[in-house]
Every structure is written in C-alpha cells, then in structure tokens.
Amino acid sequence: LKQQVQQNNRLATIGQIAAGTAHEIRNPLTAIKGFLQVIGHRMKENGQQKEHGYIDVMLREIGRISSLVGEFLMLSKPRHIKVQSVNVVKVLKDILPIIKNEALLHNIDVVIKQQLTTIPMVEADGELLKQVFLNLTKNAMEAMKDGGLLTLCLKTDEKRRQVVVEISDTGPGIPKQVLEKIFEPFFTTKENGTGLGLPICRQILCEIDGEIRIKSGDKGTRVLVHLPLTKA
Ligand code: ADP
Ligand code: MG
Q: Radius of gyration of the chain from Cα atoms?
C-alpha cells in the first residue's frame, strides 16, 4: 500500500509537469500532421510511392507522440471526477464497438458473459471508467498477437457489495518478474508502449474506491476490476 501511495504521488508529479507542456506539444503536432497528410496525398497522385511510404512512417510516429501526450494529459487534468451512479453494462456497451473493431483487425473473438444478480449500478465516473476498460482491453488484445479470445465477464458480489468485471485473454501471460513491476509508471515491455496504462487505471479506480487485481502465469491473463455497488 505504501508503494501504491508513492506511485500515485509520482503520477501526480508527472501530471503537474505534463500539464505545462502537453498542450504546447500537441498543438504543433496537429499542424505537422495536417500538412504531412496534404503532402502525402500529392505524392500519391504523382506516383511517388517510396516518398509516400516515408510520410506514412512519419504520420505513424506522430501518432505515437500524440498518444503519449494524450496519456500525459490524462494525468495532468485537475480531474473534477464526477462520481455518479452508473450502470456498468451501459458503460461497456458504449465502448464495445471500439473493442470489436480492434478485435476484428487482430483476429480476436470477443465473448461477453453476464452473471448478474442485480442491476450493476456503481459509484463511479462513467467517462473514466470507459478509459479504464479501454486500457485493459487494449492490453489484452496487444497480448494476443496471433489472435485469441477476449472475455469480458460481469458479476455481482452482493456480500462485498461489489460489481466485478473480469477481462481475460488467451495471450502468453505475465512472468513473475514482470508482474511485480507492471504498475510502475513508465514500465513497459512493448516497443511502442508508454507504461502508463495500468498506473492510470489504478489511480482512477483508487479515486472511486475500486480496485484492480491481475492474475497471470504462463498462460493467459485475468484482470479483475472491483467497483462499489451503489447503496440501495
Ligand atoms: P503499456 O501497455 O504501454 O506497456 P501498461 O501500463 O498498460 O503499459 O502495461 C504495462 C505492462 O504490463 C505491459 O508492457 C505488459 O508487459 C504488461 N501487461 C499488461 N497487460 C497484459 C496482458 N493482458 N498480457 C500480458 N502482459 C500484460
Ligand atoms: Mg497498455
């Protein structure tokens, strides 16, 4: 827990630094991206295949900087989190098209299971909750490079007054030495990773009295998100 507090403090500091610079980076990037697209179109029209390929690489790299800056902004927002009673099924439904589209591109099947005994109303900020589920399903899909199965399972645990969303994949799993570090800001094993996805998820869940647990060995990963049921 002490480590978690330290890591959250570190995230807050990163956020403060990012607040001052992220916009300054994003605005010029938008301009560069726009003009590169124009140049790319012209090159295509002129049959400059090779040069067009270079432009594509540049646009992709700009995309990477953009998403990193986007994550910085996530940390820097003085988030007035709006905690309300939200239906987890609705939150998931809203982001399902995005997930399914990504899955289709990577030969991944998506299965949704519901084991609910009540309407899964939880005390949370719906937009931030979407962010959490998108980060986690993204990780799951990135782990299944050759396709696989993504399962989203919804349960209610009435004894603990919680809704549990389980996101599991059939990827390679997480080795023990890696598992210890995955919540550290900037820890990543991916070439294009930022290492901010899980720390952001945990921070968001922490703010709404939720919890995240990850179970993984050498076959597949299960991520459990616990959310507090709205008091009836
Ligand atoms: P990023 O995705 O940018 O690397 P994250 O904080 O989202 O950053 O994840 C940190 C690391 O945790 C990943 O680089 C990966 O090694 C590991 N990880 C997270 N989710 C999974 C998963 N479902 N399967 C395997 N490894 C995972
Ligand atoms: Mg990630």
A: 20
Tens digit of pLDDT for each residue in 40-61? 999 999 999 999 999 999 999 9
The span from the CA of 123 to the CA of 84, in Å, is 5
Is any atom of ligand 1 closer than 6 Å to the C-beta of 140? yes
Q: Compute, in angstroms, the gap from residue 119 CA to the centroid of ligand 1.
A: 31
Quote the CA–CA distance of 136 and 28 in Å, as a whole number: 30
55: Cβ below 6 Å to ligand 1?
no
CA distances from 107 to 32, 192, 223 (A): 33, 20, 21
pTM of the model: 0.84
ipTM value for the complex: 0.99
Give the integer Cα–Cα distance in Å for 155 and 161: 11
* Confidence label for 21 from pLDDT (cuts 50, 70 and 90): confident
In the numeric block, the tokens 């594509």 are attached to: 56
